Amino acid sequence: MFLFFLVPKENQFIFFSTLYLSSKTHTLMTEIIVTTQPELKAIIEQILREVINPRPQPTMSDDGLYSAQEAANYLKVPKTTLYQLTHRRELSFSKSGRDLIFFKDDLDIYLKANRKASRKEILHNLNTQQ
Fold it and tell me: Quick one: which of 20, 2, 15 has its CA closest to 41?
């Protein structure tokens, strides 16, 4: 959450901004800027651009090898669920020392194997089998 305070002073504004991480008011950053109205407008526009269009998250490994956290993100499941899947041997993995390594192809195979057909697909398959 951002808090902004503007204090007009002659032809300038004193701009205070504070970014809070949570409602527990853990301050991450506090900044004081003395600026003119056009500069203030540019600052506010930049902040709005960043809020409306956040930077894309870093992409997964391009080599097709994912860490446990990357694999969990790719499957859109919690990391604990990923570990349960590996424990039950429902998901293939490799080990590098103590770390689990997942191949993107194996994650895709898991996703496709657990895909549920739509009613339309089920009816189509029933009609084509007759």
Answer: 15
- CA angle 85-56-112, nearest 5°? 30
What is the number of other CB atoms lying within 10 angstroms of the CB of residue 107?
Answer: 22
The structural domains of the chain, ordered by start, are: 2-52 (no CATH), 65-119 (1.10.1660)
CA distance 89 to 92: 7
- Tens of pLDDT, residues 21-50: 444 545 455 556 666 777 777 777 887 777
By C-alpha distance, which of 32, 35, 30 is closest to 45?
35
Contact 57/63 with Cβ under 8 angstroms? no
> What residues contact 83, with CB distance under 8 A and at least 6 apart?
68
Report the distance separating Cα 122 and Cα 116, nearest Å: 10
SS3 101: strand
User: Which helix H or strand E contains 27, and what residues bound it?
Assistant: strand 27-36
